[in-house]
Amino acid sequence: MKNISILGSTGSIGTSALDVVVAHPDRIRIVALAAGRNLDLIQAQCEQFKPKLVSVSSSEDAALLKKYLSYKPEIMSGPDGLLACAVCSEADTVLAAVVGSAGVASTEAALRSGKRVCQANKESLVVGGELMRAALVHGGGELLPVDSEHAALHQLLADRSPDTIREIRITASGGPFRNWPMKRIIAATREEALNHPTWKMGPKITIDSATLMNKGLEVIEAAVLFGLNASQVRVTIHPQSQVHAMVGFTDGTYQLQVCANDMKLPIQYALLYPERMAGPVPFYDWDTSRMWTFEPPDLERFPCLALAYTALESGGTAPAILNAANEEAVASFLNDSIGLWDIQACIRHTLETEAPVPATDIEAVMEADRCAREIAKKWIGEHAF
Ligand SMILES: NC(=O)c1ccc[n+]([C@@H]2O[C@H](COP(=O)([O-])OP(=O)(O)OC[C@H]3O[C@@H](n4cnc5c(N)ncnc54)[C@H](OP(=O)(O)O)[C@@H]3O)[C@@H](O)[C@H]2O)c1
To answer: Per DSSP, what are the bridge partners of residue 4?
Structure first.
């Protein structure tokens, strides 16, 4: 029986994970749930799964939850509550599914305490990749990717000797603007950017998918997870989102991983690894005719991807600076303060303004994050509508 703690249980990944839990009542038990502000949903989740430890964003919400729940779990709030759920002694497995760099400290704590960490929160690996690896070594636990491309790579790379690998390729749907001319992308609205063609996800990652920053973050995530350099991690546009990743070997052979585009698959893979069993996703239908296409990304129309490669090559705190500027810019785009094209301009300005330093510890990384946010906010203030 796996005892799991879900950080971000009310989000898109969190709710998909709970569908996986429902499909495997004899294999997975919920012991802790951490959410942000969605009080109605966390209340319903508590009543259904009866976690012993619960966390919400504010102490006011914690008091309300305490009043309304029909049983008496320990209820905490804020960053301390999130951390408590990350290191909860009854949990052997933690699903890190908080969005953004708000998930960095809790992911690091879970790794440091020796849990199996099923990692959806890609920003932690982008912001503090080396620190996460050090925490993993210190804790002696496991780090299993939940991002579909990285879960695919985890399967493709199993037991492969590193000197047989020439490159890895992660696929991208290309997002809603894949075929749009530059002029139209520059003027794209929030609603158009939120209309992802193949995945249903939270708003931040959906905008990241429209700008291809999501793929840029995933390139950095893959480099950290699999110990590769920037030139070995490539991106291929595959609009059907059925092939999730490919590995190219030194002899010119490629292996591809295929499955339906449903996040419950990689979530279940990470939670139950190394076991494989039928879950809540129907088997792939190979008896239906279908067409798959592949094309290279266009870095001129999608400059965020190029910026992510620049940050990866610069190293140190550059990926943390990139991520913080992106989070600020995406939040401002979502609240209609800046346009879509401003996102890349804001990130570029922040990367050019703040010099990266070695990412020696979590303080250095969080300080880089804080400075980058200040620079990005100032830029946004000067360019807001
Ligand atoms: N969605 C996908 O298909 C997908 C695929 C691959 C990777 N990912 C990654 O998985 C992560 C989650 O994505 P998502 O799409 O599930 O995001 P989402 O739907 O926006 O959900 C985010 C979750 O984090 C919680 N949260 C936010 N800030 C918090 C804080 N300060 N303290 C505690 N909880 C907080 C939210 O709580 P409330 O809603 O209660 O406020 C919610 O439960 C991201 O890093 C994303 O890049 C997502």
So the answer is: 30, 93
